[in-house]
Amino acid sequence: MRRLSRRLALILGLTFWAGSALADPGFDTWLAAQWPAAQKMGISRATFERETQGLEPDYGLPDLAIPGKPRKPDGQAEFVQTPSAYVSDATIGKLAVRGRALAQQYRSQLGTIEKRFGVPGSVVLAIWARETAYGTAKLNYDALRVLATQGYVGRRKEQFREEFLYALKILDEGHVSRAQMKSSWAGALGLTQFLPSDYMLYGVDLDGDGTANIWNSVPEALAATASLLASKEWQAGKRWAYEVRLPQGFDCTQAEPGVTLSIGEWLKRGVTVADGRRVPASALRDEASIIMPAGPYGPAFLTPKNYFVLKSYNFADLYVLFVGHLADRIEDDRPFAQPWEDIRLVKTRDMEFMQKVLTQRGLYGEKIDGKAGMKTRSALGAYQKANGLPLDCWPTEALLAHMRRG
Q1: Pick from 375, 326, 321, 369: which is nearest to 121 by CA?
Q2: Which helix (H) or strand (E) holds 158?
Q3: In the predicted model, is pLDDT for residue 257 greater than 50?
Q4: Residues 137, 141, 144, 148: is their CA dihedral positive or negative?
Q5: DSSP 183
Q6: CB 365 within 8 A of CB 359
Q7: Which ranges of 216-331 would DSSP assign to H, the alpha helix?
Q8: Which of 69, 190, 352, 395 has its CA 20 to 30 Å from the CA of residue 116?
Q9: Which whole-number Å values give the CA distances from 126 to 52, 176, 202, 251, in the listed order?
Q10: Distances (CA, A) of 107 to 14, 102, 179
């Protein structure tokens, strides 16, 4: 028994030491230093002290920049899954069935929202589906702790410091209790995942109770989402994108946002709408670019203004494709005309290497982030053309090997 007691004491001692070693005394100093800014925002001292007392950072969060420790990647699905996996037909189909039922359930409120903001009900329903699976996804993080941690040791400290203050403002004004203020690991709140600053800017009180309840009121969460999209200049009555077929020999390096023509001009150049939808005469003059999310191995799209408005909600092309396609399927249950092929992504570190090579060759001037976005794919195509390689603008293992050979 004495030996067992000694072993238990040793274990407890080591555990306490480990916990103490992880503690950062600078966090309390950082926290206290936020009071002047909080006071300037009108947050009461009582709220500040109540909500920050005993607050500790959560060093288990992804995407932190802790000195001396490797960054834990966020693993955001939009950047680590293939298009076929992320925009899964089976997943979209199931969500569309549920979305149609919800469209009927909230028909009146969605009509009011569209009349006020110009955003179709199917679009805000699709965002709700993507963000929290129509409210079934569990948000288990203490939002205030997440935002404080990200403000202290995150990669975007100043942004999250401000979000932390806005979260305190939400609590101070009594819009939600601390216990209810749960979030994702990135600090997003409510059914459609709003950062606190966006909540304060775009929250909509439909029922007149003084609070925009994005946590428990479906209509008010969807209204807030429409309000945000409208603020980004959503064009009422216009589509988010058109699935298209490209003419033979289309240069995939032109499939990026910097290359724009009117929709009418794209059609004159041999681009055709793939899914049978008609482009109304009122849209022919709208500027649009072309994207090929999987190079030649999947659908291609004409992307007018509303595509990029959706992208302001989440800066990932696959996110926009998921939301836009689901919105279409809620209204008219048709799959993409061209299916996704089974393709593979290179590892993040390999993609970073490819971006560095492209940068050295003067073909790429964007962030080295290990993500095969539109600018990266266009630059890969430029590299392929410069080296006499088959042109597909896609980061294959063969292209990676060519770059490694120099």
Answers
A1: 326
A2: helix 157-172
A3: yes
A4: negative
A5: E
A6: yes
A7: 218-231, 263-268, 305-311, 317-331
A8: 190
A9: 36, 25, 18, 32
A10: 59, 8, 31
Using CA atoms, how far apart are residues 85 and 234, in angstroms rounded to an integer?
Answer: 28
4, containing H or E segment: helix 2-22
Split at pLDDT 50, 70, 90, the class of 276 is confident
> Alpha-carbon distance 188 to 182, whole Å?
8
Write out pLDDT tens, residues 290-314: 999 999 999 999 999 999 999 999 9
Q: Torsions phi, psi of 173, nearest 5?
A: -85, -5
Among 29-38, 165-174, 212-221, 344-353, the least confident range: 344-353
Q: What is the pLDDT of residues 29-76, one digit of tens each?
A: 999 999 999 999 999 999 999 999 999 999 999 889 887 676 665 555
Residue 137, amino acid: A
Decide: 346 and 371 in contact? Cβ < 8 Å: no
What is the sign of the dihedral through the CA atoms of 134, 179, 312 and 280? positive
Amino acid at 127: I
Cα–Cα distance for residue pair 321/310, rounded to 1 Å: 9
Is 80's pLDDT higher than 70? Answer: no
DSSP 406: -
pLDDT in tens, 51-61: 999 999 999 99
Tokens for 4, please give them. Answer: 């067992």
Sign for the pseudo-dihedral over CA of 322, 225, 171, 163: positive
The distance from CA 169 to its chain's CA centroid, rounded to whole angstroms, is 24
| In the block, residue with structure tokens 């216990």 | 179
Q: Which two tokens stand for residue 256?
A: 């990026």
What's the CA angle centered on 27, arms 63 and 159, to 5 degrees?
Answer: 50
Residue at 166: amino acid letter: Y
Domain parsing of the chain, residue ranges: 22-66+75-235, 242-331, 348-405
Largest CA distance in the chain: 88
End-to-end CA distance of the chain: 66
pLDDT at 8 over 90: no
Nearest to residue 291, comparing CAs of 259, 247, 323?
A: 259
Integer Rg of the chain from CA: 24
Predicted confidence (pLDDT) per residue in 352-392, tens digit: 999 999 999 999 999 999 988 889 999 999 999 999 999 99
